[in-house]
Amino acid sequence: MARRRKKHEDHANHEAWAIPYGDLITLLLAFFVVMYAISSVNEGKYRILSDSLVAAFRGTPRTVEPVQVGAKQVGSGADLKMSIVAQQTLAGQPRQMLEAVPIADERPHFNVLRGGSKQGQRLPDAAAAEAERLLGQVADDVERAMKDLVDGKQVIVRRLADRVEVEIRTDILFDSASATPSKHAQSIIERLAEALAPFPNAVRVEGHTDNVPIRTRAYPSNWELSAARAATVVHILGSGGVAPERLAVLGYAEFRPVESNATALGRNMNRRVLLVVTGAPGSSPIAGTR
Hints:
By secondary structure, the chain is an alpha+beta fold. The chain has helices at about 20-40, 45-60, 85-90, 125-145, 145-150, 185-195, 220-240, 265-270; strands at about 80-85, 100, 110, 120-125, 155-160, 165-170, 205-210, 245-250, 270-280. The chain starts with 17 loop residues before the first helix and ends in a 12-residue tail after the last strand. The relative contact order is 0.10. Mean pLDDT is about 80; it is low at about 70-90 and about 95-120.
């Protein structure tokens, strides 16, 4: 009787999952390595490659040099001074054509009239010097022509960086609530016109009042009164030889006080006519209004 062979059971491999798992991990590693490499492209080298391919297949490249990211590299062909809008390129906007710019700044240098006033116009050095010289001469001639009134504190001459201000108390020019010149006003303003006529500077005439209300047929408010007084001064200046195109009229009423209107002295200080001689010859008379 033949001996029956014992059947051996096949051994079950419980670690078969490790092989595909290892393959998956390897593929993921390769995937992230590729993604990292793509995310850190050297923009300069990429641009060189792009221009080389364009030159090979379409002709001459459209740019002179690659876009530089970070500090400019020596020997990269970027030693020329070029203006490149790099931020727009990196933001995905169309690249701008490269444009050569001069190494030295060829723009003219400007300075502000001495004193640094906010209202000062920026002029070339020679023009600034000439404007300053004219202003100084204007102030000298006005002070000489109005010496008695300057000494009596009825006329004040202020020398500022970009202008000369001539302040006249209205009580020596006009009667109360009137824009008709007093008997002395004509000669006072004519003396002022004689001093201003030889110069090319623009002259702005400002009328100012106190805060006491006025309501007449001729002057419904202090606006009309202040403007009318300034216009009266302008008419006399024009007839005294000051070119009309140099003149301008402004009425500020009571809204530009220099002192408090609570006292009689303060109200008297606020009732004034102010002539502003600007520093730039040929400029608008109302330029730099405060």
